[in-house]
């Protein structure tokens, strides 16, 4: 539901999605306080405006920004891939791991470096990873990024 605003436009989709979600959840009869928690999370998940304003928002940010994988690529013409396509297509596996004992939350990626360099990942995803760190901090967790077995953040 957090990306429902994309039906309107990718630009400001978090805010339009929050409004759309409000209408849906209100018509379902959800409690006002629960609606407020959910729509504030939706409205604060896009990296250009994201803020972990509550625990749900922090969890949504972590889940959304760690969602990198081959199946996200709709374009099947490798020759015409943009950097986002190359990065997503090269991800062979992606796991978001919570280790309760140490309070670590880890994005663990296995990537095919023949498709792109790890630096390409950082070129487009560094802001997202820093946002994940802020969301993890909100939840009193330590954020880690591991690519091909190497801890990078």
UniProtKB/TrEMBL annotation:
Q: What is this protein called?
A: Metal-dependent HD superfamily phosphatase/phosphodiesterase
């Amino acid at each position: 539901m957090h990306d429902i605003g994309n039906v309107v436009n990718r630009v400001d989709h978090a805010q339009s999605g929050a409004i759309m979600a409000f209408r849906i959840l209100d018509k379902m009869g959800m409690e006002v306080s629960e609606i407020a928690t959910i729509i504030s999370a939706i409205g604060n998940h896009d990296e250009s405006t994201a803020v972990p304003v509550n625990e749900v928002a922090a969890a949504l940010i972590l889940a959304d920004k760690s969602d990198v994988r081959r199946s996200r690529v709709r374009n099947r013409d490798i020759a015409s891939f943009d950097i986002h396509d190359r990065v997503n297509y090269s991800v062979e596996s992606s796991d978001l791991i919570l280790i309760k004992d140490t309070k670590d939350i880890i994005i663990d990626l296995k990537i095919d470096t023949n498709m792109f360099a790890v630096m390409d990942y950082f070129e487009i995803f560094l802001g997202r990873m820093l946002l994940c760190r802020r969301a993890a901090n909100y939840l009193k967790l330590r954020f880690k990024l591991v690519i091909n077995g190497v801890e990078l953040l």
